From TrEMBL:
Residues 33-58 have a biased composition (Low complexity). This is Amine oxidase domain-containing protein. GO terms for biological process: carotenoid metabolic process. InterPro entries: Amino_oxidase, CrtISO-like, FAD/NAD-bd_sf. Transmembrane segments: none annotated. It holds the Pfam family Amino_oxidase. Residues 75-570 form the Amine oxidase domain. It comes from Papaver atlanticum. Coiled coil: none annotated. Residues 30-58 are annotated as: Disordered. PANTHER family: FAD_NAD(P)-BINDING OXIDOREDUCTASE FAMILY PROTEIN (PTHR46313:SF1), PTHR46313.
Length: 587
């Protein structure tokens, strides 16, 4: 699981230099940070967002065609592309920016290595049918990500502050000490009801799913015995509860008659951090999966050593190891449709890349729509996308500072909730803070720390829409809206922290999202309400155009987007190839 997305790249805080260097078969534009990198504003845009594309001066890696062309190198796109390469498909991943990873890449400023988005992970070391989807993909690629394990984060809520620990009993102790015995009873009641459902929620490995009738062989028939066993072990009442897995999680909570305000608020917080919506809209299956990951015996959280970019590096290694290609600085301007079928893409440089089998878009549903020729878009498809509600955007704060005066036992993660009554989805109310250098020392210079704080998909884009980034109004609003982040950081780090002593101070706004990620309205993703609607599948009304990422099933979050990429890759190969892969990784 991972929460929070922002596509910060070195180009935000650096000056471009027009020299190039090879990195395997990737086209890379080098960048060096300048003296302004410690300011509170972002630097020059990536070359692909200007009128002249750097790609015109770069040689494209290899032939201008592939079996499958993947647009975007986010986790979903890289999982799709790397598995296709593993399936011996000729695949190329096209990335607009000069580093791969989308919202999950890392970037360097003055010796500090920052995470751009996800920082809360678990399940990297899991294996087998019930493993994290990203772990299953890495296993299929023969890659791994070394991690530091931990089991707690600091919580600052209206009731007080405490170290929250995962596991079957630890959080119960926290509740008894900081909330009430009534909260303990209700939380135990919830775990007793939810954990048995995890067998059904996790019975079908995401890597077994495909988007055609072949799923009857790779998933239904293959795992029917384990699914049946799960239902038998749950008993009649548990099996009845399993029917709610595709309903809002609040229905399970309500059926248990949980009344304690803290427990209800905490459940909403977990749902919002995982799925971008509260419990009345979060899919029960997704939450049951998370509970099984976080509240089973022996569970831990994991942080990738060397930063979240290490995950991207592993996926790119897997892609290239099996013959796949990735082209950086290759901005896709349009998906080319001929005779009603997607046949390739046109780059801003003017080059046409032909896709012999399929085009896969890892962009959001709204941005994918904008890549299509208007005359090729079915009206019903356009209307559904335009009517889909969006999660809001983010305020972000990236800091590099001296560790002197900072507590030596500082934890990696901190969650600040200012007011329960406003709701966890209210703007300026919840702040997440990550200090990964406490676990991975190489992320900051000796004796320093690196920090990322953000409001998790709650910053209204409407406040920023139409503002000139160079205007006084924009700068004033940025200072005002980032103050909640600064105050949260000061609360978490204590009196030894000083804003003035930060060597790197970077503030991101929803316009930063929109500009650099090309994310429609800077959104976190679709605000799909379980029970009322569902995440779209991966096919589109346009033959040979498929989609993966957080605009598709299973939804938002690292495990979900990894699963979506795998499902698309599986759908583009034969059932026998798919089954052979499942056999090879032992699931």
């Amino acid at each position: 699981m991972a929460s929070g997305i922002l596509p910060h790249s070195p180009q935000f805080y650096s000056q471009s230099f027009n020299f190039k260097f090879p990195r395997k078969n990737r086209t890379v534009l080098a960048r060096i940070s300048n003296e302004q990198s410690s300011s509170s504003s972002y630097g020059s845009p990536p070359p692909s967002s200007s009128s002249s594309s750097s790609n015109k001066n770069n040689s494209f890696p290899g032939k201008l065609e592939a079996d499958v062309v993947v647009i975007g190198s986010g986790i979903g796109g890289l999982c799709c592309g790397s598995l296709l390469a593993r399936y011996k498909q000729d695949v190329i991943v096209l990335e607009s920016h000069d580093v791969p990873g989308g919202a999950a890449h890392s970037f360097d400023i003055k010796g500090y290595k920052f995470d751009s988005g996800p920082s809360l992970f678990s399940g990297f070391q899991s294996r087998g049918p019930q493993a994290n989807p990203l772990a299953q993909v890495l296993d299929a690629l023969g890659e791994s990500v070394p991690c530091a394990a931990y089991d707690s984060w600091m919580v600052y809520v209206p009731e007080g502050e405490f170290l929250s620990r995962i596991g079957p009993t630890e959080f119960l102790k926290d509740l008894e000490k900081h909330v009430s015995l009534d909260a303990v009873k209700e939380w135990r009641k919830l775990l007793d009801a939810v954990l048995p459902l995890s067998g059904a929620a996790m019975a079908l490995p995401p890597l077994s799913i495909r988007g055609d009738l072949g799923v009857l062989s790779t998933a239904a028939a293959r795992y029917a015995p384990s699914l049946l066993k799960s239902f038998i072990e749950m008993g009649p009442q548990g099996a009845l509860g399993a029917t709610k897995l595709l309903r809002p999680f609040s229905e399970i909570v309500d059926s248990l008659e949980l009344k304690n305000p803290f427990v209800r608020n905490w459940i909403d917080l977990l749902c919002f951090l995982l799925a971008g919506v509260k419990s009345d809209s979060a899919l029960s299956a997704e939450m049951v999966y998370m509970f099984a990951e976080w509240y089973k015996p022996g569970c831990t959280l994991e942080y990738p050593l060397h930063g979240s970019g290490a995950v991207i590096d592993a996926l790119v290694r897997g892609l290239e190891k099996f013959g796949g290609r990735i082209s950086l600085g290759s901005h896709v301007e349009q998906i080319v449709v001929e005779n009603g079928r997607a046949v390739g893409v046109k780059l801003r440089s003017g080059q046409f890349i032909r896709a012999k089998k399929a085009v896969v878009s890892n962009a959001s549903m709204w941005d994918t729509l904008n890549l299509l020729p208007k005359e090729a878009i079915p009206k019903s498809y356009q209307e559904r996308i335009e009517k889909t509600a969006q999660c809001e955007s983010f305020m972000h704060l990236h800091l590099g500072f001296d560790a002197e005066g900072i507590p030596e036992d500082l934890g990696i993660h901190h969650i600040v909730v200012n007011e329960w009554d406003r709701g966890v989805d209210a703007d300026q109310n919840v702040v997440l803070i990550s200090v990964p250098s406490v676990l991975s020392k190489d992320l900051a210079p000796p004796g320093k720390h690196v920090l990322h704080a953000y409001t998790p998909g709650t910053e209204p884009f409407a406040l920023w829409e139409g503002l000139d980034r160079k205007s006084t109004e924009y700068k004033t609003l940025k200072a005002e809206r980032s103050e909640v982040l600064w105050k949260a950081v000061e609360r978490a780090l204590g009196p030894g922290f000083s804003r003035e002593k930060c060597e790197v101070k970077l503030i991101g706004t929803p316009l930063t999202h929109k500009r650099f990620l090309r994310r429609n309205r800077g959104t976190y993703g679709p605000a799909i309400q379980a029970g009322k609607d569902s995440f779209p599948g991966h096919s589109t009304p346009i033959p040979q155009l498929l989609c993966c990422g957080d605009s598709t099933f299973p939804g938002i979050g690292v495990p979900a987007v990894a699963a979506s990429g795998a499902i698309v890759a599986n759908s583009l190969v034969s059932v026998s190839q798919h089954s052979q892969l499942l056999d090879a990784i032992g699931i």
